[in-house]
Amino acid sequence: MRSSPTIARRNWLRQRADGEGVTDTLGSILAEATAALTKAGCNEPRRRARQLIAASLGLSATELVIHPERALGGFEVARTRGLVDRMTRGEPLSRVLGRREFWGLGFALSDETLDPRPESETIVEAALARVPGRHGALRLLDLGTGTGCLLLALLSEFPAATGFGVDVSESAAATARRNAEALGLAARARFLVGDWGSALAHQFDVIVANPPYIATAALADLPYEVSRYDPQRALDGGWDGLDAYRGIAAHLPALLAPFAIFVAEVGVGQAGSVATLLGKRGLAVEAIEQDLAGIERCVVARKTDCEAEVSASAQKNLGMCRRHV
Hints:
It is built from 13 helices and nine strands. The chain is an alpha/beta fold.
C-alpha cells in the first residue's frame, strides 16, 4: 500500500537520526534512499535514488555503481538526503533536479514554467513532418513558450531557422532565454513577454503552442505532482479548457505567413472543438496527430487561402500548398 508523503517523510527522518555516527558510503546512501523512496510509493525507487545521488554529488551512473565503498562527507550526505526528502514529500524528480529532458535536450525548470512532458514531442514531430527540407531560413513562433522546449527543439532541427518565444510570465521567458544560452541556440532565439501574439507584427512559417487546456473545474482532480508543482496559469484553460485557443486563434490569420502551419497541443477530447475554433478564423485542419498512447494530442492547421501570392523564399522553404479538408 502506498504511504502518504507525511508518513514516508517521518520514516526518512527517523532513519537519519538512527544513522548518526555511522560513516556513510555511496552504497549505504543508495540503499537508504531506495528504502525511503520505496516507502513513499515512488515508481522505480532504486533508479530514481541513483539519479538523485548522481545529481547531488556530480557523479556519472558508472561512478555510482563501481565505487560503492566511497566514503561521503557530511555535506554530501546532507545534500543528498535533502533531495531524497523532497521526493518523499511527493515532489516530482524533475522538480527536485530542476531539469527535464525533452527531445534529447536538457531544460532547466522554474516555478513559472510547465514541466515538459514526453507527449508534447508530438508537436515537434508534426511540425518536422510537414516542412520539406531542414535548411530553409524559416521563422518560428512558440506561443506560451515556458521553458522554450518546443522552440528550441525545432531550432535544433532547423539550423538556419530563427524564432521567437512568447510567454505572459517574465520569469518563464527568462528561464527559456537561459535554456537557449545553455544549448548554444541563443543567437537564433528571442524571448518576449506578452499575451499570445498581441505584441507581434511579423509573419511566421511555423507556429507552435502548448497552451493551458485544463477546465477550471477539473484542476482539483489533477495528480498531486501536477497540481502542486506546475504553475496554475500554465494549466487553467477556463471553464471549458478552450480560453487559450480562442485567444490564440484570433491572432493566427495575421501571424501565419502564406503556406505556414500551426501546430497546437490539445487535451483529451478537445481536438474537434479546437478544429472548429480554428475553422472560424479561416484555417483548415490538416491533421489531428496522436501521441504514443494513442490519444489525439495535437491539431495541425493551415491558412485556407492557398491561392494567395507568396514570395519565392516562402515557396522554397515550405513547398507548394496543398488543399486539405
